[in-house]
Amino acid sequence: MIAAELMGAVYWGLLQKLERQQFRIFGPQPTRLSKAHKLLLIGRVWCRLALGGHSPNYGTR
User: Fold this and answer.
1) Could you give the CA distance from residue 46 to residue 32 in angstroms, rounded to a whole number?
2) Is there a contact between 8 and 48 (Cβ–Cβ < 8 Å)?
3) I need a labelling partner for 25 at 20 to 30 A (CA). Which of 5, 32, 34, 52 fits?
4) Alpha-carbon span 32 to 18, nearest angstrom
5) How many Å apart are CA 45 and CA 33, to the nearest integer?
């Protein structure tokens, strides 16, 4: 389930970015997260899991 938690964090970050862009998905550039941003999100989840945390840190506003 670790992979699911990691991807959940990345997908949540992508959804937040899409919301900030008001879901304009047909623009000239596709909506993406940078590699650095993905690594930051994955690092946060990995640390939370390593410290024994069980509740996800995404999905809330």
Assistant:
1) 21
2) no
3) 5
4) 9
5) 16
List of residues 6+ apart from 25 with CB closer than 8 A: 18, 31
Beta strands in 1-61 (DSSP E): none
pLDDT tens digits along 13-53: 999 999 999 998 888 888 899 999 999 999 999 998 888 87
Q: Where are the domains of the chain?
A: 2-50
Q: 21, 31 in Cβ contact below 8 A?
A: yes
Q: Judge whether 37 and 13 are in contact, CB under 8 Å.
A: yes
**Which of 1-5, 9-13, 25-29, 52-56 shows the lowest mean pLDDT across its residues?**
52-56
User: How distant, in Å, are the alpha carbons of 44, 57, 59 from that of 27?
Assistant: 30, 30, 26
Residue 1 has pLDDT above 90, yes or no: no
